[in-house]
Amino acid sequence: MEKLLEIKDLYANVGEKEILKGLNLTINKGEVHVVMGPNGAGKSTLANVIFNNPAYTKVSGSVEFEGENINDLSVDKIAKKGVFMSFQSPEEIPGISTFNFLKFAKGKITDKPVKVFEFKKQVEGFTEELNMNPKLIERNLNVGFSGGEKKKNEILQMLALNPKLAILDETDSGLDVDAIKTVSKGIEMYKNDENAVLIITHNTRILKHLKVDFVHVLVDGRIVKTGMGELATEIEENGYKEYNA
């Protein structure tokens, strides 16, 4: 298997507080990984540290993408290499339509002019597959969107930008059953043998609709157990108590 993301002995802080404490994780092309853990375990910190969010500090360890150390790259350069992250709480951005945002982002990532008519047809096809109101792509990005519409819009962005690695940070939180099925469908539409998905969540609802390769339990800044899909079922039944120090 060809490695896409490799994290080695990663320590990271938020301010003076140590959050990640020697985390190791390898994701190969074609794989779907899930990181689960209780609130405050470091799940969202992991996603933000991969992307070099300046609010987080890497203390030691390394993050490699396609064999290249990306520890010191800026967020935009990491995105350009093919890493995408959905947000737990997507921001509302007035003044730019969803479609214009996607067109601009696509052009920046590919360094090629976007064929507007062709790209719009593709985006409209994705909105139909995701059961989204097609008028949403003409509205200001996330402004006035419901929680479910915002989360579907994150999946729309993933499909339109077609990254090599999609990091989905609690994309399932706050969604009803139908919306979770739609988000799962979008992930299935996206994944193939040349890309990978990292799903960060604290519950197992979204996993009922997806085939995942590995489930990792993250507690107190470390991955304490890795297993297959059955591990998620075990956590659903027993919680995280056996992993707590």
Which strand order does the major sheet show? 6-9-10-3-11-12
Order of helices and strands: EEEHEEHEEHHEHEHEEEH
CATH fold-level name: Rossmann fold
Question: At the first level of CATH, what is the class?
Answer: Alpha Beta
**Are there runs of 5+ residues with pLDDT below 50, and where?**
none
Largest sheet: 6 strands, mixed
CATH architecture verdict: 3-Layer(aba) Sandwich
Q: What is the end-to-end distance?
A: 34 Å
Query: How large a portion of the residues is in β-strands, by DSSP E?
Result: 25-35%
Average pLDDT level: 92
The best one-word shape is globular
Helical content stands at 25-40%
Structural class: alpha/beta
Question: CATH homologous superfamily?
Answer: P-loop containing nucleotide triphosphate hydrolases
Count of DSSP H/I helices: 7
Overview of the molecule:
The protein has a single domain (3-95, 162-243), classed as P-loop containing nucleotide triphosphate hydrolases (Rossmann fold, 3-Layer(aba) Sandwich), CATH 3.40.50.300. It is 33% helix and 30% strand. The protein contains seven helices and twelve strands. The strands form three sheets. Strands 6-9-10-3-11-12 form a six-stranded mixed beta sheet, with helices on both faces. It is globular.
